[in-house]
Amino acid sequence: AKAADPKAKILLLCNPHNPVGRVWTPEELRHIGDICLCNGVFVVADEIHCELTYEGHDYTPFASLSERFQQNSVTCISPSKAFNLAGLQIANIVALDEEVRRRIDRAININEVCDVNPFGVIATIAAYNEGGEWLDALRKYLRGNYEYLCHFFA
Question: Which of 41, 49, 91, 107 has its CA 20 to 30 A from that of 100?
């Protein structure tokens, strides 16, 4: 109903959801995408927490589900959460549509947030190429915190 409102132009999709960590299923994401397509609503997929899932809960990138979804969305990702690199101010915006990329480029330049931290680039490459062991340990640690919290409140 909200997507059918003519004033609704963008859906901000947090995938996986923050702060609860809910991982959307491919079926749920398809349903969301179909609703948005039917109503002319563009999807901005905030997938910055995509690496932070618990075992058995697989993250599915929204745009990976169909070319139509790729055309009607942008995906925002960053190593800042999973690899603790927020201070390096580095992120990625992925957009298939050339016009959307042009508009993003224009907006980040107008707002003077277009300069990339060179240390952030190198840290991103290192995190994505060599950070698997770190990420596995972090996910186990976070799972332990979750289990402790559940036990504490029980």
Answer: 49
